[in-house]
């Protein structure tokens, strides 16, 4: 018997509210119970995973599913199973993100105000393919105190169902409501859940640009995540040759399908005959296809006909093409890079703000002033100086866990860790005689004045 | 010649981007220029205000406009003009909310990550009636570095136009683009602007519940604010009689039309014959109408027939009525209070989470455990112990300025000051030889490991 979307959402909210009196220690214990239960159910889970794999392989053989997707389903080979278990332990050992006091003031004698971090409420998380994400998200939700409704990809349905059952049995041994983590299986359920803004507080889509954009356009609930990752690197007038080569090549080839891979290279015009041919060499040798504007293309052609016998000479015909205007608006997600010549730092900043996706952008420069101007002027979640855009990642930033990367400016921006799953509440405690009332405050004689003294945060919450 | 909504929004975004290189000091100077220009234009502004007033008075006389609204338009009497000017100076003197570092880690030697506060982008602020709000919001936008598009009430159109012209002339004497603050005059423009999610980052409606709800339902842009303010006070088993009386009466009568006035009183059943009649007395004497559930009503009737001759005896017929179920879902905004008896603290928490608007709720108790349970269990922006709900206010909290009060859980919650108008960006600075690339990091021998050492925040931004 399956519940209606409204019942699922309402149950999740009730579970969230009931969980407010459960301690953080108990939530952490629930994570360890989940790990234990996963170990106990390993055979059943991997058997289900085998069935998903067999079906996916048949679909792939029939040309109805892309092969890389099949590989992403696999929980049985390599270190994937152990990594999944380790992830649960890692999240369990992170500091408790609830109860952190971020503002504390005495409004007057015996009247203390605290701003305390607390979970947001009910999360709806939608993802594709990789079945271990269900465990990862359940762990993040438990650690942060948010109830969650999870929907995985249909290709991993059997594995996901087995994982969900495992999580439920583990939760049954804790003080948390079992409905704290729920899963749904169909696209129709997700569509219905997206209209439950009365109960669901945040939607986190993790998947293709198309998935994210569709969800952003079909709900009134706040959506956290990113569609495009259109990152740029600007080679400033004062760029160092080696830094330019290393940073651009790494940002492009380290993992071209990632959202933080570079898609656009902006080259200051003064570098066309100096650094640019070297950077292009390094990219071409790494099998990168270059879509160039007219000046950068001309510079390469000129350079390739020089007697120094650059690799360019042989690769230019197969790997270098004129850029169409769309090239600068396209997330290639492959070994393709759009190149554009700019007359100034200001033009680079303007290009990025207009064409980019406000994800992560980088300047290669030896000038502190140019670096600082770029950092201020570029309106993106990440603004880097002489470092690869690939550093934009919650683990690399030191968050210990990553929910996703947000290109929104509201709530959380950039890589999102547990902190991004928190909100806060204001706690006002009166310990005065007769309680505190605003009628006693004012500018008139005999009235009290607000003191707003910073206080030591000592609230046990 | 008036611009299209798209052109207005696009111009605002361009002004925002251009302003990123303008210093905070220059933005503060702009505030002082605005104050100067307001003083210089005082006569013209107050003349326009007189015209708005005359028209509004005629509308009111014809029964087409509520009289309190006419009063709210007035900039000419009392201290309103001076208060408006002082508000600009006060906001100018607040600390700069931009450039605050909230996370700083060395990812490795010479690779430093900073999370730095910065403005969100373009705000669309919609408000009603009081024309001085335009100056207040313009000042908040300038201080926080956000570009703003403002729309006031049609009743104050002449005053608003004059104030907007004044702000523009002041901005023309600064390094900021004049389009940093724009105003629009028609409802149709607002409707068109609500679909400009490409350029507008945050909508802040300040006005009636109907206005806020309509806007929340007609845009994909994030909306910050609140519709209902359905605040409750719970009198716990261990409540102190005097605290109960003082806090409840203040929360109800101090300013009944405010969103933080109490609308529901929950009484623990053990208090029905002890504290409750005294609290009711105090409310009735203050001319409050009580909508009571059966037990609280019976208790009052019994109490009124006792020989102690309480004021209840005379007021009960005119001021006490049985509560319909809707009473607990209604924001009365008047001297009316819904009263319900609850069997336990848990029932009080459940009532508030289900019926309330997650704005501000209070417990009156002498028990630290009950206070802490209430604070954890009630899922509201403000959770108070023995203090009037009327304290929920940015100025009272010590923020210096208030944008509004948010009942959302995403981004900002509760009273919102300048901090609620900020987002952040991650700045990653490499000062290493050859820049930094992720390809050099990993677990393999010879690769670098992330260190994530906390560092002193020394970024000049």
Automatic annotation (TrEMBL), chains A, B:
Keywords linked to the UniProt accession: Amino-acid biosynthesis, NADP, Oxidoreductase, Proline biosynthesis
Name the InterPro entries for this protein.
Answer: Ald_DH/histidinol_DH (IPR016161), Ald_DH_C (IPR016163), Ald_DH_N (IPR016162), Aldehyde_DH_dom (IPR015590), G-glutamylP_reductase_CS (IPR020593), Glu-5-SA_DH (IPR012134), GPR_dom (IPR000965)
Aldehyde dehydrogenase domain location is: 5-283
One Gene Ontology term from the biological process aspect of the record: amino acid biosynthetic process
Identify which top EC class this enzyme belongs to.
oxidoreductase
Catalytic activity line of the entry = L-glutamate 5-semialdehyde + phosphate + NADP(+) = L-glutamyl 5-phosphate + NADPH + H(+)
Please name the Gene3D superfamilies in this protein's record.
Answer: Aldehyde Dehydrogenase, Chain A, domain 1, Aldehyde Dehydrogenase, Chain A, domain 2
The record ties this protein, via Pfam families, to: Aldedh (PF00171)
Query: Has UniProt tagged this entry with the keyword Oxidoreductase?
Result: yes
Annotated metabolic or biological route of this protein: Amino-acid biosynthesis; L-proline biosynthesis; L-glutamate 5-semialdehyde from L-glutamate: step 2/2
Instruction: Name the HAMAP family for this protein.
Output: ProA
Instruction: Spell out the PANTHER family in the cross-references.
Output: DELTA-1-PYRROLINE-5-CARBOXYLATE SYNTHASE, GLUTAMATE SEMIALDEHYDE DEHYDROGENASE
Family from the record? Belongs to the gamma-glutamyl phosphate reductase family.
Q: What is this protein called?
A: glutamate-5-semialdehyde dehydrogenase
Q: What is the lineage of its organism?
A: Eukaryota, Fungi, Dikarya, Basidiomycota, Agaricomycotina
């Amino acid at each position: 018997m399956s519940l209606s979307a409204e019942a699922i959402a309402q149950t999740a909210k009730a579970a969230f509210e009931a969980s407010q009196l459960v301690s953080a220690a108990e939530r952490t214990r629930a994570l360890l119970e989940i790990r234990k239960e996963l170990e106990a159910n390993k055979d059943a889970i991997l058997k289900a995973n085998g069935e998903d794999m067999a079906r996916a392989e048949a679909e792939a053989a029939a040309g109805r599913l892309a092969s890389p997707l099949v590989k992403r389903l696999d929980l049985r080979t390599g270190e994937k199973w152990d990594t999944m278990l380790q992830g649960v332990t890692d999240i369990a050992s992170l500091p408790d993100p609830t109860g952190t006091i971020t503002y504390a003031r005495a409004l007057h004698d015996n009247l203390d105000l605290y701003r305390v971090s607390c979970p947001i409420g009910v999360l709806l998380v939608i993802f594709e393919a990789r079945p271990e994400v269900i465990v990862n998200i359940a762990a993040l939700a438990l650690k942060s105190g948010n109830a969650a409704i999870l929907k995985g990809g249909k290709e991993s349905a059997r594995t996901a169902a087995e994982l969900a059952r495992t999580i439920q049995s583990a939760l049954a041994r804790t003080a948390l409501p079992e409905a704290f983590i729920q899963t749904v299986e169909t696209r129709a359920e997700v569509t219905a859940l997206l209209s439950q803004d009365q109960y669901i507080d945040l939607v986190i889509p993790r998947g293709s640009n198309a998935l994210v954009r569709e969800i952003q356009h079909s709900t009134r609930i706040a959506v956290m995540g990113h569609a495009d990752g259109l990152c740029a690197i600007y080679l400033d007038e004062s760029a160092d040759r080696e830094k330019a080569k290393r940073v651009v090549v790494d940002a492009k080839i380290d993992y071209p399908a990632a959202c933080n891979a570079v898609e656009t290279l902006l080259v200051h015009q003064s570098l066309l005959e100096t650094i640019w041919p070297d950077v292009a060499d390094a990219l071409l040798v790494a099998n990168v296809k270059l879509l160039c504007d007219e000046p950068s293309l001309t510079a390469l052609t000129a350079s390739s006909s020089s007697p120094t016998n650059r690799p360019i000479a042989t690769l230019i015909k197969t790997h270098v093409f004129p850029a169409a205007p769309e090239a600068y608006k396209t997330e290639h997600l492959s070994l393709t890079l759009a190149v554009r010549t700019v007359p100034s730092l200001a033009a680079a900043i303007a290009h990025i703000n207009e064409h980019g996706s406000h994800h992560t952008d980088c300047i290669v420069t030896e000038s502190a002033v140019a670096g600082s101007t770029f950092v201020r002027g570029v309106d993106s979640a990440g603004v880097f100086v002489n470092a690869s855009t690939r550093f934009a990642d919650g683990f690399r930033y030191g968050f210990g866990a990553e929910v996703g990367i947000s290109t929104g400016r509201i709530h959380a921006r950039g890589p999102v860790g547990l902190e991004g799953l928190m909100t806060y509440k204001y706690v006002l405690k009166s310990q005065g005689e007769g309680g505190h009332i605003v009628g006693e405050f004012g500018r008139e004689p005999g009235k009290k004045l607000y003191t707003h003294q910073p206080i030591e945060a000592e609230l046990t919450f």
